[in-house]
Amino acid sequence: MIRLQFSLELAYSVHTPSADFFFNFHPAHTPQQTVMSENLTVNQTAAIWSVEQDASGQRNMRLQAQTGPLKLNYQATVEISHYSDDPMQIAEVPLYQLPLDALRYIYPSRYCQSDRLAGFAYDLFGHLPPGYARAQAVCDWVQQHVKFRSNSSCGTTSAIDTMVDCVGVCRDFAHLMIALCRAINLPARFVTGTDYGADPALGPPDFHAYVEVYLGGRWYMFDPSGTAIPMGMMRLATGRDAADAAFATIFGGVTSEAPRIEMVAEHNGAQWQLPVHTDQGLSTSVV
Amino acid sequence: MIRLQFSLELAYSVHTPSADFFFNFHPAHTPQQTVMSENLTVNQTAAIWSVEQDASGQRNMRLQAQTGPLKLNYQATVEISHYSDDPMQIAEVPLYQLPLDALRYIYPSRYCQSDRLAGFAYDLFGHLPPGYARAQAVCDWVQQHVKFRSNSSCGTTSAIDTMVDCVGVCRDFAHLMIALCRAINLPARFVTGTDYGADPALGPPDFHAYVEVYLGGRWYMFDPSGTAIPMGMMRLATGRDAADAAFATIFGGVTSEAPRIEMVAEHNGAQWQLPVHTDQGLSTSVV
Amino acid sequence: MIRLQFSLELAYSVHTPSADFFFNFHPAHTPQQTVMSENLTVNQTAAIWSVEQDASGQRNMRLQAQTGPLKLNYQATVEISHYSDDPMQIAEVPLYQLPLDALRYIYPSRYCQSDRLAGFAYDLFGHLPPGYARAQAVCDWVQQHVKFRSNSSCGTTSAIDTMVDCVGVCRDFAHLMIALCRAINLPARFVTGTDYGADPALGPPDFHAYVEVYLGGRWYMFDPSGTAIPMGMMRLATGRDAADAAFATIFGGVTSEAPRIEMVAEHNGAQWQLPVHTDQGLSTSVV
Amino acid sequence: MIRLQFSLELAYSVHTPSADFFFNFHPAHTPQQTVMSENLTVNQTAAIWSVEQDASGQRNMRLQAQTGPLKLNYQATVEISHYSDDPMQIAEVPLYQLPLDALRYIYPSRYCQSDRLAGFAYDLFGHLPPGYARAQAVCDWVQQHVKFRSNSSCGTTSAIDTMVDCVGVCRDFAHLMIALCRAINLPARFVTGTDYGADPALGPPDFHAYVEVYLGGRWYMFDPSGTAIPMGMMRLATGRDAADAAFATIFGGVTSEAPRIEMVAEHNGAQWQLPVHTDQGLSTSVV
């Protein structure tokens, strides 16, 4: 079991009379991921907010703030007990048997134009036997094809752009892997989470973007950017792509400071282990 | 009340050992739209299929067919009793108060890159007072800006393409209107339906693509292509755009014939009226 | 030496009071390609036209026609005596030494966005030793990556589209090869010519699009679509891409019929040979 | 007559054994623009370079530098005696009569996809009487449609991007105006020059991008960004767009500092005047 101490500070300046924020920074509730305790403070006493959990366990927060500085402090203790399985035993689910909720993740989306990449994807992966290993092959190809470079992409960069430009950040790796998976009829979705264990050369702990692929009746995690330790990634939100799984979407005249994130894995040798790399398939949910 | 007799013939040839079809040709069940009776026949006795209704009342059919001809015949009698209201009385819903289900329709999607069109949309519509009339202004602008031309677009044509190229079919008009609405924070979604009352010059009754905008706590219908009589449009499926609301999505080696559609409005002068153009806002559902 | 009998019929209907045509169907004059005789007839006696040869030997025709049918008949006898060399002996020209006229063919153009493809091209070809063989490697890769399919592209299809979609016609193969060559600093240009020896399955002789790369102080021919016999290709026009090397650019309300082309290689066993495939590098000009 | 003192410092660090630079910072030689004197110093004594003037009077410099710092200092005294005319008297040149050199500027190019914008351009400008005023209408529309914002675009931003995004820098304004002009068959080209008289809020004198349109047998200047005084703009290079008219194109591992430019207009009340805004059409060349 992984036990994470998550701490987050967000700071904004609101320049308009009010501004609306839609946040996804609360860890999701899933059978494998439990929020043991949490605490949120907001500096604006007049701000109104609410947190609403949806069917996937995602916790959507909305907040309306007034002119002036807005600061949020959030701490949570989260325990993750991954479902893990031997990759050789994890099969693809035939299209006909996909649940409706998974089925909608085979369609193209804003940043994952899988319709355009069908030819490319079939050339690369069409001949591989179906199963977890095929999703892993897509993940490996993306990691090899794309170079990680900070600030190399922007908010409108799509999977096709990343395929062509061969450069990006974690969100771009995720979009390209998702698009290629969907192109070969593998349901794949975007996850906004945190990146425990990322290469210190990339800076302190941060939000992270990775991928879940629907295999064997579950969503399995993949980290195509290869920058984090999957066992230590904590799920905040899922969606078709970054368009509907951002950690913050803001409406109004607002300037932002960089979020400050701390992430500590507690370990005591017995009950709680440090996240490590593994060859097992890891999943945190069936929906 | 509108009473429609809907008849549909679909004909395919399956060239691979099997093929999977995901259909959305069943009329949706909503408080305003009732399927009084329906009948489906499939020529392949070995085909397996199921129909599953989701929370929005959409009825998703999946079917697995074998090599050879596949023919579906479907008839339904549908009654539509629109909710209608005075456009002057229909307000926009503040972002903070949008239900989660509506909120996801303000994000960009595959064919509706509202993130790119924000500047354009604010220049054109940002100064207008919020409300139904503003959505109508977007609808009118799209109808004026884009020329209807058969076969002028293809499966990858997006709202930006249509904005630039100024030409398209009903699906393209819908995508552009949706993208512009979302760009000014109006939730908007794609509807696949039927086009009772379309200009005979455009051919016999057909599937149709139009738009619903979330206003005053309901989804109101708009027909930016201007080719049909909204009161006679029957909802089959809704989605973010054509990527997830197509009437048929097919996996496998399949060739298709053009679908044959018949649509008759029964009328008896009292209980059942013929669809006519109206200045009222029309809605068929709150979800 | 190759001796070609070229015959062309073009038929249009002009619907506006007048229409302007810019043609490039006259074979270019180069030290290696000689027009022995030619004859042009135009059915409209009131049409005005002129043919102007530019520095590259390209013969640009402009014609102004009136309402009604327009028919052009053109015949030419052309002799081509290729410059040929051993690929192992053909070196790349260092950037600093490129003549200005060749230099402008390393920049991106409408359909050949080499700026975007630099990362991709360096991954694929950056490690190869410079020289003719590297251009050939680009040609081979394009031929392998892209599937030839009639009507799979349109007038706005670019090299990036073809890279992504993996399908196209000869013009698309040419654009992708050009973009990849420029991305590794090889001057490359688009040629509109004819396709003697094309696979009969693709239909009768036709206009053809292929590529010339500047190597060893000359322009060498490459046929990335692999559909013709390079020795039998006849050059009409060159340009950065199809935007400025089309065989016909038309302004006005005009409908076109498919051009009718005949191409016969005379051969007598001694002086004139039939075009055949060769491993030699073939060039028809230094400018 | 305008008399400009132009001073330029360029500073680079070359990290590879050598690097190739193609510069266009020498003022062009045209009948209206005369370089009275100039002086260039290069810090690397081993660097080799040459300057070659082409038919348009553009002076293309190539330079090969070695590892280490590279510094160029250039000063020139330039006199510009514009050809000017009453806009009402400046007609469009019929397509059939365009010289070949002008004709090539009606075709789409890398950043100016006029082929895509034909519908849009005809809707906006098709009904206007031909002539200088129509080009001015395009210029005015672009200035009104696009917001100037520093760093809002990047090297791959095209006219279609700017049309959609409604934001850009001088180069983007120029690309959009060029694309719209070509779309209505007006030859238009990109000019890299200097921006004497720019709004001090935009910083010190800098390189500038503007447009020339072929009208009445000459190239007339337009400044769609509206940030400079056209009478004070000095031409360095022309091309189809920024792809082939950049002031510097660099091959090799090189980091750059911002160029330092000084631009002083000498004036003595009689022979030499200060540049001022004018309603006249201004031209610096016929080719």
UniProtKB/TrEMBL annotation, chains A, B, C, D:
Taxonomy, superkingdom: Bacteria
Classification via Pfam families: Bact_transglu_N_2 (PF21295), Transglut_core (PF01841)
SMART domains assigned to the protein according to its UniProt record, in alphabetical order: TGc
Ranges where the Transglutaminase-like domain occurs: 162-226
Cross-referenced InterPro entries, in alphabetical order? Answer: Bact_transglu_N_2, Papain-like_cys_pep_sf, Transglutaminase-like
Protein known as: Transglutaminase family protein
Q: From which organism does this entry originate?
A: Comamonas koreensis
- Lineage start: Bacteria, Pseudomonadati, Pseudomonadota, Betaproteobacteria, Burkholderiales
